[in-house]
Amino acid sequence: LQKKSVSMSVQLTNRQSVRAQLSQFIEDMAVPEEMIQAIMETPVVEKDFLAYLNQLNHKLSLVKELSFNESASVNDVREVLENLKIRAMTKIRAYLLEQIYKFRKPMTNYQVPQNAMLKYKFFFEFILSNERQVAQEICSEYVDTMGKIYFSYFKSYSSRLAALQFEEAASKDDLMGIEDTVNKSLFTKTTSLKNKSTVFTIGNRGDVLNQQLEAPILVPHAQQKNKYSYEALFRSEQYALVDNACREYLFVTEFFMVRGSQAQELFNQIMGRTLSLLIKNVETYIQDCFDCIAMFLCIHLILRYQLMCHKRCVPALDKYWDSLQAVIWPRLEFIFRSNIQSVRDCDPTKFTREMGPHCITRRYAEFSAAIVGISEHFPNELMSRLLLELQNEVECFILRMAAIFPSRKEQLIYLINNYDLVLGVLMERTRDNSKEAEAFREQLTARSGEYVEEILAPHFGGIIQFVRECEPMLEKEQMEELRRQERRSLALVANFSSNWKTALEEINKEVLLSFPSLVTGQTLLQLALTNLLQYYHRFHKLLTPNARTQLVNIHVIKMFIKKYSGSFNI
After folding, report:
1. How many structural domains does the chain have?
2. Residues 51 and 171 in one domain
3. Which alpha helices (H) appear in 256-402, and where do they start and end?
4. Is residue 400 part of a domain?
5. What span is annotated as the signal peptide, if there is one (predicted)?
6. Does residue 278 sit in the same domain as residue 152?
7. What value does the mean pLDDT take over residues 509-521?
């Protein structure tokens, strides 16, 4: 009895197992009337159609698997399923093509049909699983349609943007070393800028890399009265591309279920002509471009937009960005080297002899500050080398210009004014520790020290000479030799006592008139007075007691000096 019970239990378990599997198989194979009704008659956008389409896809997959076993049940349902598949695909194909054709209507916001397609992305998956030719047809239709739409849009947008560009552009007559007054005759026409400094000054143009980077794109018909620099138009165009291309890439990867090289290939089929058009437009512009700052800003826009694409997980534009850089960099280097050469070839005698900052120095200061500022987040070795070459040429030019002044004092005034200008601009626009700023700071310090000696010499040269000659005697304890200098020292003391106030007034007047920058003048004056007091203190140590009694008290001198420098403190 027990054996029989165990046997019955095993049979029951087996039957239940078979029943469950058989029930599932029958359910998978059976084609309910509701499914037939839904697939045949229900519109594709309704939930029932999508639900039964999933079931149909499952049954078709199962039939494919079982068809190798020549199962009778497969033969029973194959024809019905095949008819349903054809009907479903016909309806889906018509729907997807209808959505694709919506893109072709003028003024269409193609995000709407794209979103509709994404909502029913299973449709394409169904077609791809069951009829690759139809899937290829839909894909080709989409590629052809969107390719034409993007090409048409960007072709139109680019041409309308071009109309917003400043009419006045930099030319070969707007290089750094070319003087402002280009010779003109009745038969020659120059196209140099009215204000050459705009080529070398960044102003607010750098905003395209910061607050304007993701600003809304320019709408040409709304901006007809405004004019823009090239980099502003370039930013708008490239940002429009980034926005459209990223959305397109993410759409095709999701809807057409492609990844990696397949996604890249499909994207290229859609956007290829458009990208070629944009590259050609840039090539056309830069052929005659002499605006280094514009091109360098474009390079940095490319770097930032490439980074933006990567953050959006869109690598599809990498080759495009590389191509753009490959177009811009050679021209940028050529123009940069042309500027360097123009400074190298510059003839100092053609310029008016003025001791203030030279126009070429001013251009260099603004230009180098602009380039250094732009490069801050994305340093570039080539640009660093070019900047160093330009810096060396400008330094040589400043020295050549200084050489046309007859006296050393005038040369030093010229050098200080120019070094001070460059350093001031660099300090204002870039980091304090930039290599360029450090180089000019060293030059300014050296020339300032030399200038101070020059302006003190006419008035206090005797004391300075006395200190330099007699200090070694004091160090070697040659006291007898020092005493022999008493007569000379008394004459110096007498001369100083009668002339020092007048001398200081003359120095003050001379320094402030020589330097257009009040800060520079005050700094040099303070340096001169500091040096004078130091020499005076050293002079005091070298005097005999008799001579010291006749010397003006140093505190009296300090009080007088405070007239010229309220913050003076020693």
Report:
1. 3
2. no
3. 260-286, 292-311, 318-344, 359-375, 381-402
4. no
5. none
6. yes
7. 89
Residues in the chain, how many?
Answer: 570
Do 206 and 117 reside in the same domain of the chain? no
Mean per-residue pLDDT, 29-46: 82
Residues 118, 253, single domain; the answer is no
Q: Which residues contact 522 (CB under 8 A, 6 or more apart)?
A: 565
Q: CA angle, corner 405, sides to 399 and 409, nearest 5?
A: 90
Please check whether residues 144 and 62 belong to one and the same domain: no
Q: Which residue has the tokens 């002339």?
A: 499
How many C-beta atoms lie closer than 10 Å to residue 451's C-beta?
23
Which domain-ending residue is among 283, 307, 332? 332
Is 306 strand, coil or helix? Answer: helix
Has residue 399 been placed in a domain?
A: no
**Domain membership flag for residue 40:** yes
Q: What percent of the chain is predicted at pLDDT more than 90? A: 54
- Listing DSSP states for 232-289 in one string gives HHHHHHHHHHHHHHHHHHHHHHHHS---HHHHHHHHHHHHHHHHHHHHHHHHHHHTT-
Q: Which is nearest to 202 in space by CA: 297, 332, 105, 323? A: 297
Output the CA–CA distances (angstroms, integers) from residue 335 to 288, 386, 416, 422, 510, in the order listed.
Answer: 10, 11, 29, 22, 42
Q: What is the pLDDT of residue 554?
A: 86
For 467, the domain range is 451-562
- Which residue type sits at 553? N
Does 197 map to a domain?
Answer: no
Cβ atoms of residues 176 and 343 within 8 Å: yes
**Pairwise CA distance, residues 527 & 568, whole Å:** 10
Same-domain status, 125 and 96: yes
Residue 67 has pLDDT above 70, yes or no: no
What would the pLDDT profile of 187-221 be if each residue is shown by its tens digit? 333 444 444 557 899 989 999 999 999 999 999 88
Q: Are residues 122 and 157 in the same domain?
A: no
Residues 106-127 pLDDT 10s: 767 878 888 989 999 999 998 9
Per-residue model confidence as pLDDT tens digits over 76-113: 667 777 888 889 999 999 999 999 998 888 767 878 88
Q: Six-digit token pair at 316?
A: 């599809």
CA distance 97 to 101: 6
Q: Of 130, 157, 191, which closes a domain?
A: 130
pTM for the full predicted model: 0.83
Q: Where are the alpha helices (DSSP H) in 67-205?
A: 72-102, 111-119, 121-130, 132-162, 197-200
> Are 373 and 202 contacting, i.e. CB atoms less than 8 angstroms apart?
yes
Do 92 and 69 share a domain, yes or no? Answer: yes
Distance CA 203, CA 353 (A): 29
533: buried, middle or exposed (CB in 10 Å: 19+, 13-18, 0-12)?
Answer: middle
Neighbours of 306 (CB within 10 A): 20
Is residue 186 scored above 50 in pLDDT?
Answer: no
